[in-house]
Amino acid sequence: MANEPVLLFLHGVGDGDMEDTWRAHLTRGLAQLGYPDLEGVKVIAPKYAHALRGWDEKVALPGLTVKQPVREAARTNRREFEQRMGAIEFRLGRDDAGSGIPFAEAAFDAALRNSRFEQARNYATDPQIRAQVLDLILTRIPSAGDIVLVGHSLGSVIAADLVRRLPPAVRVAGFITIGSPLAHGSVNVDKLRDALQEPPANLAWWVNFWNFGDPVSAHRGLSSVFPWMVDFRIDTRQIGVPAHLAAAYLSHEAVATAIGFALFGSLSQELVRAERGVDIPLDAGESLTLLALRYGHLTVQHLDGSQRERFVGALRLVQAAAVTQIARRNKAEGRLLPSAVARLAFDVTDADAVAPEPLPSRHLSKEEAVVVMTVLATENVIRPFEIVVSKETRQRAMEDLTAEMGLTSRYGTDVFAAAKEAQDILTAARNVNWLKWGAVGAGAAVIVKATGGLALAVGAAGYAGAAALTTALAAFGPGGMIGGLLTAGSLVSAGGGGIAFGLASSATAAETVESVVQTRLAATILRKRQGLEPDRAVWDILAQTEIAVRREHERLDEFSDEGSPAVKELKRKILTIERAMTYLSENGMEPEVREDSSDAAR
Fold it and tell me: pLDDT value at position 198?
């Protein structure tokens, strides 16, 4: 295993764990995950407890060997670091950051004054002891290659101090801190906080594990001090094992996952390759996800330079998350994974792995494509990332998408022309930011909540089917890329009073109402351009919303201050609805008034 990284473990206060008990606990944690043991790994665990108590002769402080990049190189370093951090976050899952423990800073300061923490105080305040400890560790480290750096308690402080002093040819393949006090001001060794404002160029990623039961780490994690690294809160409480001990941390699944990944790479059982997928029809969520990812990849082809690099990085993470979400949902529901989805899986934790492009999308009829294409054109397909892409670039990608679907590129042109026309109608041709007005999904969760889901359950059959949509949102939620697109699509196609109630609700911002109305109007205009039957439900929804909003306005306006924000919001909603209904009326989309049969007979 000569090509594998060296594991460097730096201990905390005390005798330095002379028996290396930490190793047995880590081995147990790795084994539970299916990783190899440490027998074939070179482990360096220097003992420096004696050096923390005093010094006999002066030793020069080891110099800095890692220079921080500047200008474009610094931006590249940070971008690549964020990609690697995204990969390890993806592997560990979502962190519950918690809020820390009240008075944790004072509690730690009291502990630091205790004789048991004398070694920590010596390292933080005595330059000679610090130099002696760093020099002792550096003499054990190889001159080149990768190392995995694990620091417990005071060892995490020493490790952070050590990173920029490693031999130039040494790369830190993973930095894991456990039970770290680095967030406390009393251990800001030689202004370490200022020195590490950006990730060092030799560092692949850094994850800090902390927990409420550990008084040393209960500050709030380390990201409050080093915002570019990741905090991950765990519960290390075990019977007979104090929460702060390295043994409690190293046997935890999340910690073992991070160390195992850094040492051995991915052993993920979650990724499903193409040959393990099956050829079954896609459901609404899967279809929309593939279309959104295809649109994203087509957009990349029209980008260049830094913008292209950033978009590719964001799309890569979004695709990995989407495939994993679908795979987990399908497994939970006993549904097989379609091959079209399975072939998009890749190991996101491998920085060199390329995200497979979705195959050209299946054919949709012009009628079926109206809502889908309108939503894709006006929503953010790389949510939660936000990258401003010009309207012209997005339109070219949309033209590519509709052309390969058999709809012709003209359909894609009409999608954006309809969206622009709707924008001009409702904003009186004001120069409104293209990316801001169409974000239906951004405020959709409020409408869903306001109606208890009624806005999505009524009239959505033309889009995904109420039952299918409800099931999908239960799995994906209204946020995120998949849930956001599904929710936006349902709001563009839903009918009945549910959506009207949601739009009129005081909890729904005027900006959200504008977004929903403009997107629905864009879909209506697209139908007109393509010679399709108009959506008669739009007028009914607007009329019902107008009644509810006007009533609420009259109720509040009579007694509220003249400049009341709530009244202004209602006026803005009314203006939006008036403009949309005026357009529909002038273009023959107002419902015809039917004569009463008794009147007609006279």
Answer: 92
- The answer to whether residues 77 and 204 touch, using CB atoms and an 8 Å cutoff, is no
pLDDT in tens, 193-232: 888 999 999 999 999 998 877 878 756 688 888 989 989 9
452 pLDDT above the threshold of 60: no
Q: How far apart are CA 237 and CA 38, in angstroms?
A: 25
Three-class SS of residue 356? coil
With both helix axes pointing from N to C terminus, report the angle between 71-92 and 305-333 in degrees, rounded to the nearest 10: 0
134 has a pLDDT exceeding 50:
yes
Q: How far apart are CA 287 and CA 390, in angstroms?
A: 26
User: Strands of 206-210's sheet, edge to edge?
Assistant: 43-44, 6-10, 144-152, 169-178, 206-210, 230-233
| Cβ atoms of residues 341 and 320 within 8 Å | no
Strand-pairing partners, residue 151, are: 10, 177
Pairing of strands 169-178, 230-233: unpaired
What are the chain's domains? 6-53+86-264 (3.40.50), 275-586 (no CATH)
- From residue 307, how far is each of 33, 162, 303, 385 by CA, in Å? 38, 34, 7, 13
- Are the C-beta atoms of residues 514 and 426 closer than 8 Å to each other? yes
Q: Omega into 591 within 30° of 0, i.e. cis?
A: no
Compute the distance between CA of residue 498 and CA of residue 451 in angstroms, rounded to an integer.
6
Tokens found for residue 266: 């991915």
What is residue 544's predicted lDDT score, i.e. its pLDDT? 86
Note the pLDDT tens digit of each residue in 426-446. Answer: 887 555 554 454 456 556 666
What lies within 8 Å, CB to CB, of 88 at 6+ separation is 174, 205, 207, 230, 258, 261, 349
pTM of the model: 0.72
Comparing CA positions, the residue from 367, 365, 379, 368 lying closest to residue 289 is: 379
Per-residue tokens: 466: 């109420």
Query: What's the pLDDT at 600?
Result: 46
Q: What is the DSSP string of 537-590?
A: HHHHHHHHHHHHHHHHHHHHHTTS-TT-HHHHHHHHHHHHHHHHHHHHHHTT-S
